[in-house]
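ok new one. same drill as before - structure tokens go in, u give me an amino acid for every spot. 644 of them this time. try not to just spam alanines like last time pls lmao
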């Protein structure tokens, strides 16, 4: 398009008439005020009605070269004023359509008066209509419909909306696959037994729960809906009479029975028995054993800590994981759990959860760095493999023999993973409060778990010789580890189960708190002069250590910081100038080689440590005789009293 066209043409559209000769816009015959530049744009658009008129066309035709800098603003303003004069809208145009980033098009039907164009200085956008013989057709007033815009293909119209919908769908799908799933919750607990005996749940066949009853020792069963416990008689020769059930076969036809025949329960005879207790076959000796997910094999551990598998029909064992501890050392490896797909084994060792592939590779701690002072045990997958349940509790709060007495709280590791969903970094706590729980067993339908819950509380009593009865002491408070000062003036005790060391007058008045969590003092001992109290604790780094605190209050400090431990069973000499202690771990000597257990004497002035003659069978729980001449204790293997 070249430069301007001089015209005297007139047009009609709608209620408007444009008289180019007189530069006038009329509405229903009455003149309508419009800016000069806006009028020229209207004339130019009418000359090219139905065609795209670009912004560049308008610039070349209607703007001088010296005003290019203001062109965009000027054009936008002029078109806006033109629309105001016509009562038109850019959003819903009747006359002037905006073509984004390109220009404008006059879209209304136009009636054109006789052409009176005077020598155009430029070539029009489109050649004039001819009759095919070169003559211009200019007869009378003619209605010229606006040329419709070229419509885009249907697929192109829908391309961007469909692409937007697809992107939204992808985003929603990505969020859905990565969203955190609802955490598991335990609701509506139901008490199934009411006999008051300590017990643990070991498995279910869908109709019955199988229980290890601890007092008196027995194996029992109870309906999953609750009721009376029925004892299962084992028709098996027993060397120790301490029967346990460790696993129920997947088809619920057999049990793995363990006959513990040593006092520390380090070894047991493993047999497969029928569901009613009838013998099937003897397999091996082990510390712990479970069925594989398909029931065709058994995995078991040795007292040394090795893990083997063996066909349920018997045969040669296959080593899965070898313990690297010395042969003489006992490494308790228990709470075996096999993943439902059979690819992974998990177990408890050193009071922590471990994991290894079923072929023995990729051994690693399952939760490194998680709650370092807490024990982890009793792991068990749910049958669908979506959660791994386990028990955890602070070492102090569990006190003695945690697997059987106090327990802890139930936790779950969420195993529901997808390609886009990352695993949860932390386990989910399922229970809390004063009740403590034992290892959980998943129901066959996957909607419930069974666990032993226990409310822990004690009552402090004393024996009265005259009445020949036990009577409440200090109003029957819940306490343990009671120790009196030598002169009998003061008493120290640890509240149960919160584990706080207190000192009080003999009648319970004058209470003074000496420790606070995470300490859980054990083996509380007064110094002969009553100025200090020592105790054992392992809450700081998981290793038993001996601490001393002033009886009038103060900060507990390690008594033997120069040694790494473990230390336990400290006793003062009668003159208070020495103490004797053992290097056996307080919680369980079975985890420690007797060859490593020593009895040592610490002299305070001058400060030095003396190791007493070593006994191959180990020696623990040293006690000083009142005259200071002897130290008595127990040998580790036999449990018999001895002296040095």
């Amino acid at each position: 398009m070249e430069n301007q066209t001089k015209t005297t043409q007139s047009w009609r559209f709608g209620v408007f008439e444009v008289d180019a000769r007189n530069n006038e816009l009329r509405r229903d015959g009455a003149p309508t005020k419009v800016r000069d530049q806006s009028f020229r744009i209207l004339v130019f658009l009418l000359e090219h009605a139905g065609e795209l008129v670009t912004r560049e066309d308008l610039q070349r035709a209607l703007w001088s070269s010296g005003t290019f800098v203001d062109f965009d603003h000027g054009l936008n303003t002029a078109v806006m004023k033109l629309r105001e004069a016509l009562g038109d809208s850019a959003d819903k145009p009747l006359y002037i359509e905006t073509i984004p980033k390109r220009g404008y098009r006059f879209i209304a039907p136009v009636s054109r008066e006789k052409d009176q164009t005077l020598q155009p200085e430029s070539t029009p956008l489109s050649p004039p209509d001819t009759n095919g013989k070169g003559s211009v057709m200019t007869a009378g007033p003619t209605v010229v419909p606006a040329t419709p815009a070229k419509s885009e293909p249907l697929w192109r119209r829908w391309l961007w909306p469909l692409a937007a919908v697809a992107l939204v769908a992808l985003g929603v799908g990505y969020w859905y696959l990565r969203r955190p799933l609802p955490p598991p919750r335990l609701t509506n607990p139901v008490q199934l037994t009411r006999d008051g005996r300590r017990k643990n749940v070991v498995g279910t066949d869908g109709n019955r729960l199988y229980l290890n009853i601890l007092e008196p020792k027995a194996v029992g069963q109870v309906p999953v809906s609750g009721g009376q416990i029925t004892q299962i008689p084992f028709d098996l020769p027993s060397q120790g009479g301490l029967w346990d059930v460790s696993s129920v076969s997947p088809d619920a036809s057999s049990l793995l029975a363990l006959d513990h025949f040593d006092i520390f329960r380090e070894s047991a005879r493993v047999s497969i028995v029928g569901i009613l207790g009838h013998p099937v076959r003897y397999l091996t000796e082990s510390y712990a054993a479970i069925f594989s997910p398909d029931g065709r094999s058994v995995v078991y551990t040795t007292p040394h800590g090795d893990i083997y598998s063996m066909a349920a029909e018997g045969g040669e064992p296959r080593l899965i994981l070898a313990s690297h501890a010395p042969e003489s050392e006992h490494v308790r490896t228990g709470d075996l759990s096999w993943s439902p797909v059979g690819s992974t084994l998990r177990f408890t060792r050193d009071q922590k959860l471990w994991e290894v592939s079923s072929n023995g590779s990729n051994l690693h701690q399952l939760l490194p760095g998680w709650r370092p002072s807490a024990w982890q045990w009793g792991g068990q997958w749910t049958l669908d493999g979506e959660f791994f349940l386990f028990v955890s509790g602070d070492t102090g709060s569990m006190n003695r023999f945690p697997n059987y007495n106090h327990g802890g709280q139930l936790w779950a590791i969420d195993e529901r993973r997808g390609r886009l969903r990352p695993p949860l970094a932390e386990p989910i706590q399922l229970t809390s409060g004063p009740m403590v729980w034992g290892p959980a067993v998943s129901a066959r339908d996957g909607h419930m778990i069974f666990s032993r819950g226990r409310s822990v509380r004690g009552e402090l009593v004393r024996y009265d010789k005259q009445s020949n009865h036990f009577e409440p002491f200090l109003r029957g408070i819940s306490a343990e580890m009671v120790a009196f000062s030598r002169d009998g003036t003061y008493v120290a005790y640890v509240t149960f189960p919160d584990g706080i060391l207190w000192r009080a007058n003999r009648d319970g008045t004058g209470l003074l708190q000496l420790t606070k969590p995470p300490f859980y003092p054990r083996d509380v001992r007064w110094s002969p002069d009553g100025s200090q109290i020592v105790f054992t604790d392992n809450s700081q780094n998981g290793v038993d250590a001996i601490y001393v605190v002033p009886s009038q209050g103060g900060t507990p400090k390690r008594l033997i910081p120069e040694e790494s431990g473990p230390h336990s069973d400290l006793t003062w000499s009668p003159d208070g100038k020495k103490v004797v202690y053992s290097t056996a771990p307080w919680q369980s000597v079975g985890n420690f080689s007797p060859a490593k257990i020593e009895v040592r004497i610490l002299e305070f002035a001058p400060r030095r440590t003396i190791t007493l003659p070593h006994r191959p069978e180990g020696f623990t729980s040293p006690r000083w005789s009142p005259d200071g001449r002897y130290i008595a204790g127990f040998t580790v293997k036999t449990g018999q009293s001895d002296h040095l």
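The helical segments are 36-47, 55-62, 71-86, 154-178, 395-398. and btw The chain has five helices and 50 strands.
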